[in-house]
Amino acid sequence: MARADLYPVPWWIVPAVAAVAAGAFLTVTTDIPGIVSIPLSIAGGVLLCRAAFGWMTERRQARQLRQFPDILAAIVRAVSVGIPVLEAMRGAAREAPEPTGPEMSRMLHQFSIGVPLDECLREMAARSGLPEYRFFATALALQAQTGASPRATLEGLADVIRKRLALKARGYALASEARASAAVLAVLPAVLGLLLWLTNRSYIRLLFSDPAGHAILSLAAGSLAMGVVTMRAIIRRTLT
């Protein structure tokens, strides 16, 4: 994987865990015909991998975004006392925590071995996946071409990011009840089904052994998945 170094754990651990979970699903659901259980286990494993990689990417981006205003402020302070922009970025990269510091150090290392500055900045912005980094890359590339001071631009960018973070935190606080309700509604059917499987297996076995039960179980799983996706989409769109 081209971006495997962005994840906090080796990338192959996620597919391995998903494969184990799929195998456990096949073991537990021996009453379901293979023509149904095998595609379900494969689809579940793929979705689990996507969810895990997406969660790790979102966490990394959130950390980068929270750290970025402080990094910009450090660069602005250094530029204000006459330090060149690249030297200011080197100092900020040494002091910045993970993942911002290593990403900026990587960009500066590429520049030191002869890669053009605008290309280094574009790659750093692409790896981050954040629009704020793209704006930062554009501002520094223009500054390198024109020779103008990036101080005002970087100060404005840091201020905008801080305001966006504050607004996002307020939105999450206001949407906390809806997010909790969505989580409960998503988990409750699975918990109840597991309890019935443990306490009255003959009662729930019909869902796995009878053709009508297969249809009911498929409709229930599809309805639950559609509801979870819809609630998640509404909440994410509201917070965007």
UniProtKB/TrEMBL annotation:
The keyword Transmembrane applies. InterPro entries: T2SS_GspF_dom (IPR018076). Keywords: Cell membrane, Membrane, Transmembrane, Transmembrane helix. Pfam families: T2SSF. It comes from the Bacteria. The chain crosses the membrane at residues 9-28, 34-56, 180-200, 212-235. It is found in: Cell membrane. It is a multi-pass membrane protein. Residues 74-195 form the Type II secretion system protein GspF domain. This is Flp pilus assembly protein TadB. It comes from Gluconacetobacter sacchari DSM 12717.
